[in-house]
Amino acid sequence: MPALPMWSKTNELDAENAIFPLSSQNHAFRRGSNAFIPHLCVNGDLSEYLKEKGPLSEECSRKFFTQLCEAVQYLHGIDVAHRDLKCENLLLDRNHNIKGRVELSNTFCGTNSYASPEVLRSKPYNPVAADVWSMGVILYKMLYNVLPYPSANLMRMVQLQTRNSVNFPDTPTVSPPANALIQSMLHPDMEYRISVASIMQSPWVEGVPSEKKLTILCRIFCELKGTLCNFLCKKINKSIVF
Predict the structure, then answer these.
(1) What is the Cα–Cα distance from 191 to 19, expressed in whole angstroms?
(2) Closest Cα partner for 146 from 190, 101, 100, 87?
(3) What is the rounded distance in angstroms from the CA atom of residue 28 to the CA atom of residue 39?
(4) Which of 55, 56, 117, 157 has a C-alpha 20 to 30 A away from that of 1?
(5) 163: number of CA atoms within 13 Å, CB side?
């Protein structure tokens, strides 16, 4: 697939670095090289937060990640791709809500450890799908506090990326739905990589706890079982001849 333009409706946004709230309102873009809004990032960035706190709980990660998803979904909706999503570009305000720093460019860009295999191999790519890959790396980093692929050897990292196999450590314990979501974002083929819209509708992002789902399934099973038992009993009673 040929690369999509990084932006079409927003060519007037020529800021190389612009800090903006991760929501669809109150954007803080500014023409020029830099736009800094100190009150939006008084608690540093997500990378610093992880160094201090270590792996985040799924509840905390879900909060941060949902805010990221909403922002990226908005940007993609106006034909803007970020192309350098990483923990260092996710800033924390005084209430520990995620804010973002956008770096706009029309060339191959990004940070190796967060970049998708097609970007690292300098192939034509879809920047929207490349953003999704970076989001997968960010979620992995939030939950495990390590990166999914070692970046010391670029060639080796690309080989690991293209195997379509993600190594999930035994500790900390992370739920299967979270790992499955990460796996779908880190698909090496951008054609099969999950979309942001599907991410937003995933069970993990929607926040339905596994135990709640299990309870619902058990209740449904019991109801079905009771209905089936009643049906069989009626059939058996009709077939009995005294």
Answers:
(1) 30
(2) 87
(3) 12
(4) 157
(5) 11
Amino acid letter, 137: V
What domains are defined for the chain? 17-206 (1.10.510.10)
Give residue-wise pLDDT tens across range 192-210. Answer: 999 999 999 999 999 855 4
Rounded distance between C-alpha atoms, residue 98 and residue 89, angstroms: 10
> How far is Cα 242 from Cα 91, in angstroms, rounded to an integer?
79
pLDDT in tens, 170-200: 999 999 999 999 999 999 999 999 999 999 9
The set of residues, in sequence order, having a beta carbon less than 8 Å from that of 138 and lying 6+ positions away, is: 46, 65, 68, 85, 86, 87, 90, 114
pTM, two decimal places = 0.72
Alpha helices in the chain (DSSP H): 46-53, 58-77, 117-120, 127-144, 154-161, 176-185, 196-200, 203-206, 210-239
Is residue 45 flagged as an active site residue? no
The residue annotated as part of the active site, out of 79, 84, 93, 131, is 84
> In one letter, which amino acid is 236?
I
β-pairing, 34-35 with 17-21?
parallel
